[in-house]
Amino acid sequence: MKIVLRNLKLVHPLQNFDDEMKDILIVDGVIEKIGSLTKQETDNAKELDFTGKVAAPGFFDMHVHLREPGREDEETVVTGCDASAAGGFTGIACMPNTEPAIDSAEVIELIKKKAKGHLVDVYPIAAATVNRKGEVISPMAELHEAGAVGFSDDGAPIKTASIVKRALEYSKMYNLPIIEHCEEETLAGGAMNESINSTLLGLTPIPSVAEDLIVMRDIMLAEYTGGKVHIAHISTKNAVELVRQAKHKGLNVTAEVTPHHFTLTDDSLKTYDTNYKMNPPLRTRADVDAILEGLKDGTIDCIASDHAPHSIEEKEAEFEYAPNGIIGLETQIGIAMTELYHKKILPFQIIVEKFAVNPRKILNLMVPLFQKGEKANLTILDPDEIWTVDISKFRSKSINSPFDKRLLTGKSVAVVNNKKMFYKNEMLEI
Fold first, then answer.
1. CA-based nearest residue to 231, from 251, 248, 249
2. Cβ atoms within 10 A of the Cβ of 44, count?
3. Pick from 362, 389, 419: which residue ends a domain?
4. Residue 391 falls within a domain, yes or no?
5. CA 109 to CA 245: how far, in whole Å?
6. Phi, psi for 65 (deg, rounded to 5)
7. Do residues 348 and 376 both lie within one domain?
8. Could you tell me which of 84, 117, 334, 360 has the fewest CB atoms within 10 Å of its CB?
9. What is the C-alpha separation between 194 and 284, in angstroms, rounded?
10. Is there a single domain that holds both residue 79 and residue 110?
11. Mean pLDDT, the chain, whole residue set
């Protein structure tokens, strides 16, 4: 099977390309040639014109909740992969707070079996402790051998410093990260960020220091053990500064941020719309500004969705009782392009780095390259396409998004991986 992608501008943070438009010849899912193609080379090939579009290495989301096993009514491995492809991603890492948790080789094998044959590659993040209870570390060697690319008790922090220390020591043997949901549990349990808004709205608060304390604890333990810590969905200005200081010291500490945490503040909660309820909660303008600075100076390594599907019935509960989280796979590229690229916060190359390169580096995965003989794994974007979010057209099983009807600029128009292409809302074999 031959396919020719015409007139693409190539952007890759690890490779140098000029601004000239290039054609890509793909044969049986492998890049055969990049550049000018002869008529003989394109004989019997399906040709697609992407004039004005940009090709980047396939985007990767390292923080996705697929809900399977346990809550297939909210999302499954397949629907999560479909949403990923529609959103512009060729790879995802799925988090372990399933039912049962991803704390055994059997659950990892189930997820891999469900994802087999899809365009989107799925890499499980295993639980750091048995059943995510924070009491005993999980069988990390077995989980690593089964295919786990990191460990986390996501949804909650690892409970005690002694267990974090032990988890870091074991995971260090495989150079895998401990991915932490940073929240001091005795300060947790509220409905929104502690601020003047929480007082005005009468909602139970979560102070920002709850995040800062666990970030500080884990950085100190990373320094002590030499282990690898990744701060999930960072949301406070002090946490950003703590990670910055850790990087200056040369510690093995990385961080991610979600699009909602670099675009929204707790002012959004004044409508009591539960689609703005998440954990960590939306913070203040000062926190958002610090996050943007952290993205600019490299303190924050990558952007991830924290895609958290919930049923309509659950989200329609009173604000205090509604579950935390929103979906994000199908909106995050548009939000990042609108809020970071078009507002000149980050150049396009750095956005690609934070979506495609750094997540894979953190998880020790190969970064796709544009060269002959490499498997075709790429995301094609239109940086200037103006579109309106419509949750009724999402591929995800859930629709809990605060961005419905939001006007965005910049969109994925196609993805290619595993001898498949998602283009114009269709999955094509290539």
1. 251
2. 6
3. 362
4. no
5. 39
6. -105, 115
7. no
8. 117
9. 9
10. yes
11. 97
Dig out the tokens for 60 from the structure. 């990767």
Strands 178-180 and 151-152: parallel
Strand, helix or coil for residue 248: helix
34, 171: one domain: no
Q: Which of 306, 384, 390, 404 is catalytic?
A: 306
pLDDT per position as a tens digit, 179-216: 999 999 999 999 999 999 999 999 999 999 999 999 99
Structural contact between residues 389 and 401, judged by C-beta atoms closer than 8 angstroms: yes
Q: What is the DSSP letter of 121?
A: E
Q: What percent of the chain has pLDDT over 70?
A: 100
pLDDT tier for residue 167 given thresholds of 50, 70 and 90: very high
User: Is 106 among the domain residues?
Assistant: yes
333 three-state secondary structure: helix
Instruction: Give residue-wise pLDDT tens across range 141-158.
Output: 999 999 999 999 999 999
Q: What percent of the chain lies above the pLDDT cut of 90? A: 99
Q: Are residues 148 and 45 in the same domain?
A: no
Q: In what order do the strands lie in the sheet with 89-94?
A: 59-64, 89-94, 121-124
Clarify whether residues 80 and 9 are in a common domain: no
Domain with 15 in it: 2-55+371-381+408-429
Same domain (yes/no): 38, 10: yes
Distance CA 211, CA 156 (A): 11
Please tell me whether residue 291 adopts helix, strand or coil conformation: helix
Task: Return the pLDDT at 134.
Answer: 94
Q: Same structural domain for residues 47 and 73?
A: no
Cα(299)–Cα(231) distance, integer angstroms:
11
Distance CA 274, CA 282 (A): 12
**In a shared domain, residues 208 and 178:** yes
- In this structure, what is the dihedral angle of CA atoms 119, 359, 98, 157, given to the nearest 10 degrees? 180
